[in-house]
Specification:
Layout lengths: L4 E11 L2 E10 L3 E4 L6 H13 L3 E6 L22 E5 L22 E2 L3 H17 L4 E10 L5 H11 L4 E6 L4 E6 L2 E8 L2 E8 L1 E6 L4 H12 L2 H19 L8 E10 L3 E11 L6 H8 L7 E2 L1 H11 L10 E5 L5 E4 L4 E4 L4 E9 L5 H11 L10 E8 L2 E2 L2 H14 L6 H13 L5 E8 L5 E7 L7 E7 L5 H4 L17 E5 L5 E4 L3 E6 L2 E4 L10 H8 L4 E2 L4 H9 L3 E7 L3 E8 L1
Parallel strand pairs: 24-25, 24-31, 28-29
Antiparallel strand pairs: 1-2, 1-8, 3-5, 4-5, 4-16, 6-7, 7-15, 7-19, 8-9, 9-18, 10-11, 10-17, 11-14, 12-14, 13-14, 16-17, 18-19, 20-21, 20-22, 22-23, 25-26, 27-28, 27-30, 30-31
Length: about 575
């Protein structure tokens, strides 16, 4: 039986200042179709339009290799497993069945490049020669990384999308493969735009630079991209190509370019974008639109036909849905299609990740290889570091064993190098000049296995902390049971000192900076670890010494107990140890 589901996180642009965020999950489609041959692609697209017009949601995916269905002159690999698929759904669901069955490790995928750096450099030189011959102006040359099959692909999608701010992210699953796309790029949308009813909008991305390691470097990199004539030339080539493509399906004189050379900020890169829109001429079907636009010029280069021949000559593997498109077709007639860059194709025996760059006559092979590597950082869940916040009191590390055991275990789960000797050296060095008084030691372990250390004197406070209740956000388990820099789910307005969280089952879970303890009828209780909470070092120590016991704590029971003064509420953590809580409700 086919396992079919989809999770689409797209944006629909009504105008520059009115953007609708769509976050839709679908399961158990009423209809599913695969185009097994290039000749079946048109039928697939017509079926998609039929179901959309009948009031259904449609998720449509087309690989790059479906291009000859729209123009036989476009050269691609012709041994594709399929040439497109669609899933038709009556309505979204709140969550998937068995959604909480998460994998909690990023280990054992083992990404490795298909092409050597020497091969990539040679291919870039080949492209330079093709430009000199006049066969192309720009080639979007891509290569692949191959990894082991991802066992829990939907969990991996959630890990990547938690840290990514891509506007056109999609997860599609069937029995043969799952597609994990954290793309930031819009291919096109159709529907209302700027108070006109039947418009098409496209927003190509061309021009990339890495984010800086600090604020100063980050600003420098932004300015470099913003002032880069090379990147602007690369961008405008694709803008011109897409303007020409749009003119084939648009009312005369309506093709407009706005927001030229805008810089968008992402977790690991800055991207240069431009926006083009037009009014669609009458009687243009989705097939006609794709016939004019597919594949997107930003992932081919220009001119499209001759450049795709060069791509076919250089690239040793088919692209698949990477550089094809994933579309969400809404019952109200609107369509949103992405360009699936930053996309993993998870097969039965392996996973494939494509990465590319636009090559022009000014491209430096070494710089392009650096850009390729930069674009693969997302695979390692970039910028997520481990944290330990430790109490130093009169020259001693409180709960040293618990902190060591926790960071070592978390490093293994997140596939981060951990050197036990270096860790011990960091702790011992921190003690050398802090033999008197109480201090906060914050240690951060980055993805390369390096430690960053910060020590500050800890202020004493005997006053209770104020707290407010809040429903816990849906978060990958990896970020709840490990202490990391990924703390977006703990963001709050700071109207109170801390936040007390509860889950969908109305059970108390944890504070944003500590574990929960209640005192009732002479005993101390804490929520069980099965609630997918951080197992704090203070909590571990108190459980080991049998000072506290695990018990489910119902939210309503807690509130009644506090109101009737039968329950006292505390926050515990390894830094502050015990803090009485004044809950505001």
């Amino acid at each position: 039986m086919l396992k079919l589901k989809a999770h689409i996180q797209f944006k629909y642009i009504n105008d520059k200042d009115n953007i609708e965020k769509l976050n839709l999950k679908f399961e158990k489609p009423i209809y599913y179709m695969v185009a097994n041959t290039i000749e079946e692609v048109e039928k697939l697209i017509n079926k998609a339009e039929y179901y959309q017009s009948s009031g259904y949601y449609v998720v449509l995916s087309l690989p790059y290799e479906s291009a000859p269905a729209f123009d036989k002159a476009l050269q691609v690999y012709n041994d594709q497993e399929n040439y497109g698929s669609l899933q038709v759904y009556k309505s979204p669901v709140n969550q998937f069945e068995n959604e909480s069955a998460y994998e909690t490790s990023l280990k054992n995928i083992n990404w490795h490049p298909v092409d050597s750096e020497e091969t990539i450099q040679s291919n870039i030189h080949f492209i330079h020669n093709e430009i000199i011959k006049g066969n192309t102006y720009q080639v979007n040359y891509t290569t692949r990384l191959i990894g082991n099959r991802i066992k829990k692909p939907y969990h991996y999608f959630k890990l990547l999308t938690y840290e990514s701010n891509g506007d056109y992210q999609a997860y599609i699953e069937n029995d043969n493969e799952s597609i994990i796309s954290v793309s930031p790029e819009l291919f096109f949308q159709t529907g209302p735009y700027r108070n006109k009813n039947n418009c098409i909008v496209t927003k190509p991305m061309k021009g990339t630079i890495a984010r800086g390691q600090n604020n100063e470097e980050d600003k420098i990199n932004f300015d470099v991209l913003n002032q880069s004539n090379k990147d602007k030339a690369e961008n405008v080539m694709i803008v011109d190509l897409l303007r020409n493509d749009l003119s084939k399906i648009s009312k005369t004189g309506t093709v407009k370019t706005t927001d030229l050379f805008m810089i968008e900020k992402y977790k690991t890169v800055y991207q240069m974008t431009s926006t083009i829109y037009s009014e669609i001429s009458s009687n243009q079907s989705l097939y006609h639109i794709l016939q004019a636009l597919f594949p997107c010029g930003s992932i081919t280069g220009a001119p499209k036909e001759s450049t795709m021949k060069i791509i076919h000559e250089l690239e040793t593997l088919p692209r698949g849905v990477y550089c094809g498109t994933i579309g969400l077709m809404l019952p109200d007639g609107r369509n949103i299609f992405n360009v699936p860059i930053r996309t993993i194709q998870n097969k039965k025996d392996k996973s494939i990740y494509g990465v590319g760059a636009g090559i022009t006559i000014d491209s430096n092979p070494h710089a392009e290889i650096k850009e390729f590597k930069m674009k693969t950082k997302i695979l390692d869940n970039p910028n997520v570091h481990l944290i330990e916040t430790i109490r130093i009191e009169n020259g001693k590390v409180s709960r040293r064993k618990e902190h060591t055991r926790r960071i070592e275990k978390s490093a293994a789960e997140l596939n981060i190098p951990f050197n036990r000797n270096q860790w011990d050296d960091v702790l011992d060095t921190a003690l050398e000049n802090h033999s008197n008084g109480t201090y906060k030691l914050r240690i951060e372990l980055d993805r390369l296995g390096d430690f960053q250390v910060e020590i500050n004197e800890l202020s004493n406070t005997n006053k209770p902390f104020t707290a407010q209740l809040m429903l816990a956000k849906e978060v990958p388990t990896l970020y709840t049971i490990n202490k990391t820099t990924a703390r977006k789910h703990f963001e709050h307005s700071h109207e109170t000192n801390v936040v007390l969280y509860y889950n969908e089952e109305n059970q108390i879970t944890e504070f944003d900076i500590g574990n929960v303890v209640i005192f009732e009828d002479g005993d101390y209780f804490t929520p069980p670890f099965s609630n997918q909470i951080l197992n704090g070092c203070m909590r571990q120590s108190l459980l080991r010494d049998e000072i506290i016991k695990e018990r489910i704590i119902n939210k309503d029971m807690l509130l009644d107990g506090i109101k009737n003064r039968k329950i006292k509420l505390f926050m515990i953590n390894s830094l502050r140890e015990w803090i009485e809580i004044d809950l505001k409700f």
